[in-house]
Specification:
Blueprint: H1 2-26, H2 40-45, H3 51-57, H4 62-88, E1 101-102, E2 106-107, H5 111-130
Length: about 140
Amino acid sequence: MKKRFIIYGLAGWCLEIIWTGLGSLLKGNIVLEGGTYIWMFPIYGLAIFFEPIHNKMRSWPVIIRGGVYTVLIFFIEYFTGWALQMLIGVCPWDYSGTPYSINGFIRLDYAPAWFVAGLIFERLHDLLINIHLTRTKI
């Protein structure tokens, strides 16, 4: 379980750095500057709890699986943002003042990105099963 948590945390960091790097390119930064927060490592590591959900939804259509992941990721993003706000006094990814933000913790316009991210983590889970870093009951 620890290995998978670390792998999901690292994968999330990588995806976020690519996402923010591409976002910087759209703003004219040809250096492709990307970034993340240390806090995001354990938050992305929580994807380990999606494994049993993935196993239950494996045969469902991709649009439904992606939709479920989107809702779950929004819930985790909101809750962890709120928890960090309470714990350290700030949410590192404060979306306040941006369109479609809910209390500065989530941005609804990121739904397509979370849809894809959920499916990427689903593929990562399948890869981990194939290299025997996880157990599954199908």
